[in-house]
Amino acid sequence: MNHREIVLYLVNIPFELVLCGLVYGRGLHRRLPFFAAYSTVFLTCTLCFGLIYQRFGYQSFTTYYAGWIISGVNLLGRCLALAEFCRYSLQAYKGIWAISWRILGFLAVLFLANSAVDSWGQPNWIATYVLTIERDVGISSAVLLLVILLISIYYGVQLEPVQKGIAFGLFVLCVVDAVNDTVLRALFTQWILSWSHMRLRAEEVNDWWNTIRTSAFVFSMSIWCFALRKPLPALNQQPELLPANIYAEVSPAVNMRLRAINDRLLELLKP
Amino acid sequence: MKVLLILLPFAMVVLGLLLWLLRRRPNLNAGRASLENAAEKVLATHYRYFPQVRQALSPADTRYLLRRLPPRIAKRVLRERRAVARKFLAGLHQDFSNLERLARMVAALSPVVSREQEFERILLGMRFRVLYLWTWTRLSTGSVSLEPIERLAVLIGQFATRMERAMAAVAAVSKEEGLSAGLSA
Predict the structure, then answer these.
(1) Which of A44, A54, B153, B172 could bridge to B54 as Cys pair (CB 3.0-4.6 Å)?
(2) Measured distance CA(A219)–CA(A93) in Å, rounded
(3) In angstroms, rounded to a whole number, what is the distance separating the alpha carbons of residues B92 and B95?
(4) Do B148 and A250 touch (CB under 8 A)?
């Protein structure tokens, strides 16, 4: 761990403490329990890391394995927080949520399958797979966030400012992780065969990787803290849903009309 | 390094897209009130003026003007008619968007939604926008005749009546429920 990383590590802790305080103080844990758990995991992991570094040093195998385990826990926490965010945004609108979760699930499976296919046959398959899966989780999370925002805009569902802040923070983390993992994976698969020559270079890259990641964490946490600076607004009343027969009557009628307008426009363009 | 050079601008674009998506927009929080508002918008639209537009674009009218007017003025009249046709198209675009919006609101406030209907509407929306752009360009360059536009205006008028009936059903349900809520209170 170099000087830059130590400074960032020390900056990280107060941000995490403030975030945890705001999450529980504002009562966000009652609305988004997985996100609250994720912010707690952040803080716990950072403190655990500090203790492990102090006890075993930076270069030990224990630190190495602890690092991967903590990364895995963080990744899992983020996935759960994201899934919860998607559900919380649209769950009140039963009809569109029933469609949306299928689309989101399909996209998530697609990206994970892609990572499996992509890493197959690469040198040092497991290491490449870990980097690939992390990259693809980042990409799929970013895509899912964009899709959920597009769906909410398409159907006119307004997100609360806190939800927007959480979405933006998660998105920054996902994008930075995806870019970072892509670059690291490219270097890794390209130079794995001449590892002994590249060791110093790889360690330097790894330092930068950690610095960029930690800076992204700090940036995301500051966005979340900013979003939580005011008390949360009272929960929106559940929207009053229409009887099912209204949709059955109106939707086909509207679609038929739209279709006919399109057909006539097409006819108009024929020579 | 090459990967980074490709990825960084891409990441910036995606971040910009997210910020654009997060900006404030009209919403459904007003529930049924916004639905009724949307229904009113669908009814009070451009189709009410389409008979006049149809008359202005009718080929018989054009032929009469071409026969009676000097060529220079006739050309100007034709140009102005194309401008009217473009305005008609813009009105059509607005009607289409209002209709789409209403259908989305009904879908959002419905407990059960049909996947087929929703996907069909998304595709219809995309198709309309492409066709609209293409028609607008061709109208501007004068390479489309005004006669089919007249047929389009007839179609809009026919469908308006059907939509009025469907909207009356929505309004009736809203009133009934409002009444029963009032009685039970």
Answers:
(1) B153
(2) 32
(3) 5
(4) no
Note whether A244 contacts B21, CB cutoff 8 Å: no
Domain over A3-232 is classified CATH 1.20.1070? yes
The answer to which of A18-27, B32-41, B73-82, B83-92 has the lowest mean pLDDT is B32-41
**A204-261 pLDDT per residue, tens:** 666 777 788 888 888 999 999 999 988 888 776 677 777 777 787 778 877 887 787 7
Residue-wise pLDDT for A140-172, tens only, equals: 898 899 999 898 888 888 888 888 899 999 999
- Taking contacts as CB-CB distances below 8 angstroms, the residues of chain A near B34 are 156
User: Cα(A250)–Cα(A231) distance, rounded to whole angstroms?
Assistant: 40
Residue type, A219: F
Which residues of chain A neighbour B175 with C-beta distances below 8 Å? none
Per-domain residue ranges of chain A:
3-232, 242-271
Q: Identify the DSSP state of B77.
A: H
Amino acid at B105: M
Q: How many CB atoms lie within 10 A of CB B12?
A: 11
In this prediction the ipTM stands at 0.70
Residues of chain A neighbouring B14 (CB-CB closer than 8 A): 142, 146, 175
A27's torsion region: left (phi>0), alpha (psi -120 to 50) or beta? left
CA distance A68 to B83: 66
Which chain A residues contact residue B27 at CB under 8 A?
156-158
Better pLDDT: A185 or B30? A185
A249, B162: Cβ pair inside 8 Å? no
CB contact under 8 A, B144 and A186: no
